[in-house]
Protein 1
Amino acid sequence: MKLEPIYAEVLSTRVIPNVDPQLSEKLNLSTSQNSLGLFTVTMDDVGVTALDEATKKAAVDVVYARSFYAGADHASGPLSGEFLGIVAGPDPDEVKSAMEAIHQVIDGGAYFEALNEEKTHSLFAHVVSSTGSFLSKEAGIPEGQALAYVIAPPLEATYGLDAALKASDVELACFYGPPTETNFGGGLLAGSQSSCMAAADAFRQAVWEIANQPKRT
């Protein structure tokens, strides 16, 4: 089984070298967080993965990460996409390094996979070999641990999670109960890298089977 990748697209980016104190207060920034990097992207889970990678490549923290309701097809404007991410750092150089890492992940490091030719049915089964500060906090695990980040439409996600948990020695560290803001579901599965890979494969296989035989009991 080989599924075709669906790559996300960065729609807009900006760096704020010196953030205004009023905005800083609303974002709960520390006194050392002077600069911001902002981006929108067409796929929220790819954006989350990119943010986590940024925390490993630069001295930044994720200060905002929100998906938009109903997904990119119902965005508020042509540059909104499905997700807004913001990182904060001590200076523009660190933020720019973080933005480079974000672009690298979105441009090909993480992607959804198509379950049909029209690419209207898809899943996300990505293994993070070593988590940064963002996903570690989300999952409640130490930094540097492996995660399987698995997402699919509601029924597929629920069934696929069960299959993944039974197929490998992983812990359901975070459950995204459907429907999420973008009407998907899934979770973060923690374990060794090999266990996470096995879990992601089992999730992918289970979701693929539903796509091919949706009404089988």
Protein 2
Amino acid sequence: MRAVSASVLLILVVWVSSFGESNADCCWTRAKLIFTMGNGSCGMVNARSTRYGCEITVCADGMVLVGSYCGKGSCNLFGCFCRGGCRRGNFGESFVEINRRYEINLISTQLKMANVTDTEA
């Protein structure tokens, strides 16, 4: 009985602590960018080379998607309640601005909403 109550208390503490500095928004939106570079190669911006140029998946702030969701901090299993909220910006425009020294020319921006059953990252 004592082990059960200690386990319940531990779960309760972890659950309550997960609400500190978190935001109820779900950070699912990301964008696949296809672009060419006037200066450098795809790998210099962590993109992969395709027959059309370069391809990369970014969050709204123009930073490369790491993991499955675009939270500023850690998110729960479903991409919600991310510490610090979601990354904000203009996807392609933000990416071009961050990497302006590479003279990036956007060809295509495809927005995508990730979800729990999504296996592509």
Protein 3
Amino acid sequence: MAEAYIVEAVRSPGGKRKGQFAGIHPADLAGDVLNGLLDRTGIDPAIVEDVIMGCVTQAGEQAFAFGRSAVLASNLPESCPAVTIDRQCGSSQQAVQFAAQAVMSGTQDVVIAAGAENMTRVPMFSNYLLHEKEGVGTGPWSERIKKKYGVEAFSQFEGAEAIARKYGFDRETLDRYALDSHLKAAAATAAGAFKNEIVPIAVEGHLVDTDEGIRAGATLEAIASVKLLQEGGVISAANASQICDGASAALIVSERALKQYGLTPLARIVNLTVTAGDPVIMLEEPIPATRKALARAGMTIDDMDLYEVNEAFASIPLAWLAGIGADPAKLNVNGGAIALGHPLGASGTKLMSTLIHALKARGKRYGLQTMCEGGGIANVTILEAL
């Protein structure tokens, strides 16, 4: 079977809500990261055959074929097509999988997978709540769906609480995990671990190259002081992912393109998997998805040198560790979304850039990335660093 290779994977630094990227249109933020990808690979922009752009909240400034707007805001030629996809938090990880499938099928040779979300300028749920603002319709779930599952709405927050109860995680366990995320991210930043993956973004005449949400001085006491989101629950804003403005991108090519354009790959894609399960508990799906991906690849979790599991809520990677029997020392080694932010549609290629560069920095070979997603879906991608 034909192979798919990742030549480069980059991301913007993360911006806090109303923070360093609050004044940047999301198309421009995405365009800047696309330009950074082009610059680092040195390819002729004219050879890019498609851009697959993940974006969850396709409303306002992220509406009207947002991927195309990102291309028009970049140095790619206007002849380069684009498409915008929504697989919730896994949107840009799915973009990588679609790009890889195009390359592996021989349909295309050079494709960019990307994602962007400016959550300050296009708030989460602003498209989902349109029926309330306009007084039209009843929202995304029909009465048939509500009756089928016995719910009025599907809630990721409720799913995260349910997973914490199922696996017996108390508040302190989640808070300690959150603290560790901040400490790892702060240490990685201080060591320059993100230098090769971050594209600096120009903001008011100066370049921003540092993730804004990391709390280097975080303490367990400070995290524990944050109000719980539900009385009697264990989830707080401090042990959940941060709202974040950001963009990310990866260049996916065929073996033919490597030879034709003299490109050196960072990684080879070993396996692409997507599964779906219970839409109510929702966020537990990375566990069966990981099992399926490893089985299809003929590998075990012990073959993986590092893994990135999105920290949508602290209960998710903790449940994944327990369900898979994985080594905590290999998980999110440079911190995760609790410290670095979760820019929704950008998080897939964001985590992939971190995983690839972490593997390369450590001289390691195999990495696994998985993402819990709205509706009970999960993506898993296995990579081999080259």
Protein 4
Amino acid sequence: MAAPTAYIVEAVRTAGGRRGGRLAGWHPADMAGEVLNQLVDRTGIDPAAIDDVVMGCVSQGGEQGFQVGRGAVLASRLPESVPAVTIDRQCGSSQQAIQFAAQAVMSGTQDVVIAAGVESMTRVPMGSTGMLFAQAGLGKAKSPRQEQRYPGVQFSQFMGAEMMARKHGFTRADLDAYALESHRRAAAATERGDFAREIVALEIETPDGPAIHDRDEGIRADSTIESIGSVKLLAEGGMISAANASQICDGASGVLVVSEAALKQHGLTPLARIHTLTVSGGDPVIMLEEPLFATERALKRAGLSIDDIDLYEVNEAFALVPLAWAKHVGADPERMNVNGGAIALGHPLGASGTKLMATLVHALHRRDKRYGLQTMCEGGGIANVTIVERL
């Protein structure tokens, strides 16, 4: 008997907002709540039929504290009967939300699950929850036993990025060239209207009055290799700069995952099916490298080769991650991040997983392609890989 299938019937995201930018006025629970509303409105499903909401969020403090997933439900038009949970797998939080939703459906325990994510990096700055404890003298993130296992080692994504660039033989020029291409692809996709189907437009207030936010704010269409190369390096003698790393971003996103029974019961049309899902851990020091090896394992599990995959979304936490990934797995760069990535579009941490899935699923439909693969590096040396098949 064939294993139960999990289907994606809708996938949406807000347009990214720059730090202190056009989405700064949106409370994260309200922003995520509007994504939930749109998933319901676009599919026409009875909101009372939703079995659960799995919300990714990294900085779970301040306005994103007190279980922001449940807060999003209460800020939406969903009934109080819809439960929610907030999860943290660092940058992969909402990609893991997709996988948890799919696992619930494939196990037969639930039929309709929303996987979503939110991060207001303006209102709840990255690392702010840990800094509050450190400033209060309430302990360190690295435990004594971790120190015994990794003596004198600092767990740092920036240090890991520099280590990885050197290990895989990339120069700053390579990273800057990739960053420029991210902006070019994102600008071209925007002008073609490629993001229109996936974007949830939000009402905002500007100095000139009310407006609609429906275009990614971080894209720099006028970028040049000279302007990117002029940005100061984050470490003396290093290769990483703010220009060849992901942008701080405000945003929310979500995917509606259902069973075959729910498709029939609610008259839903699937966009894709979840083909393969996996997660693995690796070196927490170099930290960003695990997507390379996780992808190899996922493809083997799926019975596919990298050549079978039509489009790849590899999160641009740093330019070197997709560059090293493509080099290691033998991927075609022309199929990778075809609409640009987080360097141009922003990386709203806990929202990036479902954000990338929204872009991937809709790109598969626009380009009439079959298989898509999504992966990203995550704090602590973890990586999720999700393979979907367009329907």
